[in-house]
């Protein structure tokens, strides 16, 4: 689900005539890989998990609102679990009633962009609009979660100009996979630590059941779900970024 650059191998017979093209392609692939490493994988400078010393975690849902939102709301209400929803502009516009229901239930609303595309595939003017859009009124300190987490140091510059902070995660619920909820829950709970920010999606059929299992598991471990602003998320520093890099590329 994550964007990575794959340099193409040059195998043409008349390779010399293609050399400038190959060089340009390699340079572009190298630049994209570097941006991917600095942005998505390491996340240096973006917001990541909260303090590992408090028994709290943050549940986050990307891509909504959707026809699945009410099911998620019911599970969250049953467990008394405040959560954060990173919504897209088209889905927020299509479901104003669900946006109101999320806000009324005390959940946090943050931005997941206008176009569900990695930032590295967008021209700068489009990325500027992408970073600036937010479901709440213009206020400082609002969060933007780039689609697929794909972003570059340039995205962070745009976010800074737009008074946004880039919010990533450290645990994936992997609810885009066609696996039983119990298996996904076991894997997710195996990754969770105090301070974790858990990525789930508002849309997949498995997510409400998975959410229920995760919440039971968190309760057993004495980990309380809180809003990302109450965690609070912390800036990913050098050491934490290196750890994320190892997890992204090292396994
Ligand atoms: Zn998404």
Can you walk me through this structure?
The protein has 9 helices and 10 strands. The chain has 251 residues and is of the alpha/beta class. The chain has one domain: Alpha-Beta Barrel (TIM Barrel). Strand 2, helix 2 and strand 3 form a beta-alpha-beta unit. The site of zinc ion has 5 residues, from loops.
Write the layout of secondary structure elements.
Layout: H1 15-41, E1 47-48, E2 56-62, H2 69-79, E3 84-87, H3 89-94, H4 96-104, E4 108-111, H5 124-132, E5 142-144, H6 153-161, E6 164-166, E7 171-172, H7 181-191, E8 197-201, H8 207-220, E9 224-225, E10 234-235, H9 238-249
Parallel strand pairs: 2-3, 2-8, 2-9, 3-4, 5-6, 7-8
Antiparallel strand pairs: 1-10
Bound molecules: zinc ion (ZN).
Zinc ion is lined by residues 62-63, 112, 116, 147.
CATH architecture group name: Alpha-Beta Barrel
DSSP E strands, number: 10
Task: Give the fraction of residues assigned to helices.
Answer: 40-55%
Instruction: Give unreliable regions as ranges.
Output: 1-15
Task: Put the structure in a nutshell.
This protein has 251 residues and is α/β, with parallel strands linked by helices. It contains nine helices and ten strands.
């Amino acid at each position: 689900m994550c964007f990575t650059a794959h340099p193409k191998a040059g195998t043409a017979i008349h390779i010399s005539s293609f050399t400038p093209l190959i060089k340009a392609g390699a340079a572009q692939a190298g630049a994209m890989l570097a941006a991917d490493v600095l942005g998505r994988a390491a996340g240096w400078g973006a917001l990541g998990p909260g303090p590992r010393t408090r028994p709290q975690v943050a549940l986050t849902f990307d891509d909504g609102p959707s026809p699945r939102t009410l099911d998620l709301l019911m599970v969250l209400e049953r467990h008394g679990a405040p959560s954060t929803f990173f919504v897209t502009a088209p889905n927020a516009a299509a479901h104003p009633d669900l946006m109101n229901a999320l806000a009324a239930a005390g959940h946090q609303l943050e931005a997941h962009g206008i176009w569900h595309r990695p930032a590295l595939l967008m021209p700068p003017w489009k990325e500027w609009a992408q970073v600036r859009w937010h479901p709440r009124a213009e206020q400082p300190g609002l969060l933007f979660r780039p689609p697929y987490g794909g972003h570059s140091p340039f995205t962070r510059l745009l976010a800074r100009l737009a008074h946004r902070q880039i919010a990533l995660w450290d645990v994936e619920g992997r609810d885009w996979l066609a696996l039983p909820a119990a298996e996904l829950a076991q894997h997710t709970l195996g990754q969770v630590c105090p301070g974790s920010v858990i990525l789930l999606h508002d849309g997949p059929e498995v997510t409400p059941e998975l959410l229920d299992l995760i919440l039971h598991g968190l309760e057993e471990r004495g980990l309380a779900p809180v809003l990302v602003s109450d965690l609070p998320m912390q800036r990913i520093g050098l050491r934490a970024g290196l750890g994320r890099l190892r997890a992204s590329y090292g396994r």
